[in-house]
Amino acid sequence: MKKRIDQSLEFRNKDFKLRPWQLKVQEVIYGTETRTGKLFDIILLIVILASIIVVMLESVNYLNVKYSETFKIIEWIITGLFTIEYILRILSLKRPLTYIFSFFGLIDLLALLPSYLGLFFAGSESLMVIRVVRFLRIFKVLRLSSYMLGADILGDALKNSRHKIIVFLISILTIVIIMGGIMYFIEPNESGFTSIPRSIYWAIITITTVGYGDIAPVTALGQAIASLIMLFGYAIIAVPTGIVSSEIATAKKTDQKLFKCPNCKLEGHDQEAKYCKYCGDQFNSD
C-alpha cells in the first residue's frame, strides 16, 4: 500500500511538478489510504459534528443567553480551522479549479460563508447547519462503496426521469391553478378563499393530502370538489414514485450488464461482487 501511494505521489510530482510540501498536504488532506490521511478525515468529521452541535445549542434561548460568548468563540475557532483547510486544499493542487467547482468544494465553501456573512447580516449564522452536508465525507472515509453505488444509481434514475417528472409537475401545477380558480369562484371570502393565489395554496395542500385546516370550503359544491381533489391526491402521489422506481430498476440492470469480468469477459455481475459467477476469478479490489 505504501509503495502504491509513493508511486502515485511520484506520478503527480512528475506530471504536475508539485512541490514537496504540496504533496505532503495532499497526502494528509486528500489521502484516504494513508494513516495520516485517515486520521485527518476522522478529526475533520468530529469537528464538523461539533460545529453542528454548537449551532443547534445556540438556537436554544436559555443556553444562548448563558453561553453566548463561549459558543461564538468555538464557532470562530472551527471556522478558522475550516478556512485553513479550504485554503490548503486549493494551494496543494496544480489545478485548484477542479476542487473549487467540485461538489465537495462548493459544499466546503458554503460551510464557510455563513460565519463571514454573519459579520454583515444578522441571523445568517443559522445557515451554518449546511455544514452537516460535509458529513457525506464519511462514505469516503469508511470506504462504503456499496452506499456510493446506491447513490449513483439513484442519481442516474433521477436524471433519466427528469423529463417525466417535469411533465408531471407542470400537469399538477395546471390542475391546482384551475382548482384554485374554481374554488375562488364558488366559495365566499369568509371561508378563507380571499384571492386566487390563496385558493391555489389551498388546492396544493389538499391535493398533497397535507390539509393544514386553515382554509376549508363551506358550501356543498366546494366540499364535493374538495373530496374529489383529496381522492385524486392519493392517486397522484404514486406517480413520481413509480417513475423513479422504474428508472432505478433500469439503472441497476444497466450497471449489471456493463460490469464485465476481465477474465472471461461475461457480463451480469453486481458492482460489489468480489468473484466472477461464471469462472470464479477474483476481481481486483482496486
Helices and strands, with pairings:
Layout: H1 2-16, H2 20-29, H3 35-58, H4 61-91, H5 97-100, H6 103-117, H7 137-141, H8 145-160, H9 162-186, H10 196-207, H11 220-258
Helix pairs in contact: 2-4, 3-4, 4-6, 8-11, 9-10, 9-11
Summarize the structure.
The chain is mainly α. Helix content is 69%, strand content 0%.
Please explain how this structure is put together.
The protein is flat and about 80 Å long. It has two domains: 2-143, Four Helix Bundle (Hemerythrin (Met), subunit A) (Up-down Bundle); 157-258, Helix Hairpins (Orthogonal Bundle). It has 286 residues and is mainly alpha-helical. Helices cover 69% and strands 0% of the residues. The termini are close together. The chain has helices at residues 2-16, 20-29, 35-58, 61-91, 97-100, 103-117, 137-141, 145-160, 162-186, 196-207, 220-258. Residues 1-15 have low confidence and may be disordered. Helix 4 (61-91) crosses helix 6 (103-117).
